[in-house]
Amino acid sequence: MPRLLLVASSLFLITAACQPQNDARTIIDQAIAAHGGDAYQNKRISFDFRQFHLVLEQQNGRFRYERSYRDSAGVAIHEVLTNDSFIRTRNNQAQPLDTAQIGKYSRAVNSVAYFVLLPHKLSDPAVLADYAGQSQIDGQAYHKVRVRFRAEGGGNDYQDTFFYWFNQQTHTMDYLAYSEGGPRFRKAINPQTIGGIRFQDYINYKGDEKDTTSVGTYDQRYQARQLPELSRIEQKNIQVTPLANQ
């Protein structure tokens, strides 16, 4: 073999060996397409979650998340989180909030919105994703992806670490795990497509509260039946309507 061809061939093999077996971003993009793709854009999504009613709007990079409920005293609470602000009212009267309260309430609203809008939320610029290997769960083959967040644009919980398991055949996001706020493993159930968007409920499994570093192995612990069921995450009365173009 000529020397130049030999060198080129060697460089190709070295480059190929250094490349990840699968690209995390491609896997995420395939999952977003499988769950609705562009159907997420310019939509108003409303649903009930436990005692809360939520309305999620996304349009041209802007978002508006609303949560309404009555507290234990029967007071009507309405909360609105946008790209720029958080507002909370009690019986239609604006409630003064300090920084800690704004963080607490806005995280509560954003957390529900985040999980309902998965995997679409993994397209956010703050997401840092890397491939974490292949896995077998309940007889199905999965790609495992680890997700962290940049400090800028990653929100108050940018230090959280998530793992997602994407079905290699259907590209759907069937399992996820996270470490902060109590380690959890979630299994998607009851998928339904409304307005072109795939929505899923979840069985929520509890991990070891003393060990928040091993959530990436929760697929193995789930298979070994070592994770007790904690709760069910269910969205009811889901409605999807288009937003007027602005």
TrEMBL record:
* Pfam families reported for this sequence: DUF6503
Domain of life of the organism encoding this protein: Bacteria
**Which protein is depicted?**
Deoxyribose-phosphate aldolase
Annotated source species: Spirosoma sordidisoli
User: Species lineage, top-down?
Assistant: Bacteria, Pseudomonadati, Bacteroidota, Cytophagia, Cytophagales
